Amino acid sequence: MATITIMDPVTRIEGHMKVELTIDTINGQQQVADASCTGTLFRGFEKILEGRDPKDAPVLTQRICGVCPISHGMASVLALDQAAGSPPPDNGRLLRNLTLGSNYVQSHILHFYLLAAVDFVRGPQVHPWVPAWEVDMRPGLDAVAANLPLAIEARRRAHEMGAVFGGRMPSAHALIPGGFTGTPKQGRITEFRQHLDWLLNFIRNTYLTDVGEVAAAYSDYFDLGSGHSNLISFGVFEESGGGKLLSPGYVQGGIQSPLDESTTEEITEGVTYSWYNDSTNNQTPSSGETVPQYPKGEAYSWLKAPRLGGLPFEAGPLARMQVNGDYSGGVSVMDRHAARAQETLKVAEAMSGWLDQLDPAGPVFGGYDDPVSGSGIGLTEAPRGALGHWVEIQDGTLSHYQVITPTCWNASPRDDQQTPGPLEQALIGTPVTDAQQPIEALRVIHSFDPCLSCAVHVMEPEGEPIVIREAGLANR
Ligand code: NFE
Known about the structure:
Largest sheet: 4 strands, mixed
Shape: globular
Strand content: 15-25%
Oligomer: single chain
Distance between the termini: 45 Å
Mean pLDDT: 93
Number of helices: 14
Bound molecules: NI-FE active center
């Protein structure tokens, strides 16, 4: 008989997600027979932005998430650069890349050591690593567990590195349309270089080694969690001459294709199983509306269901590295971890080159005039994958704003074809030893590095204030 296991909330992710698993024995093996992913909160940023000065967008959208704010700032300034015809000068482009790169490094280290590693190794037997599920962990990985405190220092350093030019972290107000406000003074370049050299050493000698150890001990996870195996990347880190360090493209049925502007017009968002009015089903983001409707029939998520050409696509480091030809493995739990670690090194090494290219005497801002009307699309990549901001300006204010985040691609619900989202599909077929503690399914979920803060947000309760209670503390 099938067991329904509900993880609500899923822990060690960003934000709030519920995953419901139907666990059954099929062909003699207990496994996930069906899965549904629910984003349990609503994001209202698109509505907040309507009627505002376009320059508010890079500031406000960085508050969508504290883990990938720079990516939201980037998507926003790219859209406004396009709307106003005001690309940044070289220094501005390089400083944006360096600040975004710092955010990638901290995010990937955070994910592996603090969110995912304790699915594979026993963490320190102190709070917050205990209490934890009592599941078998494979031996020989004590050295990985011992590096958890060092990873915390690495993440702190990456944050400090991002603040050198960005001014502050997690949200950096130096990102503005037309360029950047921080300047590449020699002292700052030196300070940035010190952090970067320390981190390059950590990535090469600790992070990549530890991911290799985990991959060797759990090599069967190269065969688990494949899902649809469709991959998408919008491309990121603008280079001189118009290229990107990680190029845009998509992989479908094992075939790789470039992703140009006309292809991105095939992006739609389904709401058949989302708590939004059906009149908004399958709209494109440039015209898409956000009309909440809760409850609604069989809907089960606040996430919409982004699709390209009607199909679900997985976003993230594995998608970027495969599209770019930098990773030749498959699509699986362990491929996601391996590609993420390898990408961290690629980005950090590129940062070293961008630092060399800075001109301390050159401009960081190329000018920006508020457009009275216009539109722009900011396509970039957040650490977790493809991120787009679609912007329209009328009478000098924002008339339309739409955001599609990586976790909306990955953790989306079913669409009107009943096709599960990438994470749902990846869970189906995962063998499970203990239906009460489905660690195997948790490994699949964490490999996507979900962030529901990016995907959905909070709904203001009417009347009652929010009260946070913590064990042992008075209400506050
Ligand atoms: Ni909240 Fe984010 C990233 C974005 S994921 S972390 O990376 O955009 O939806």
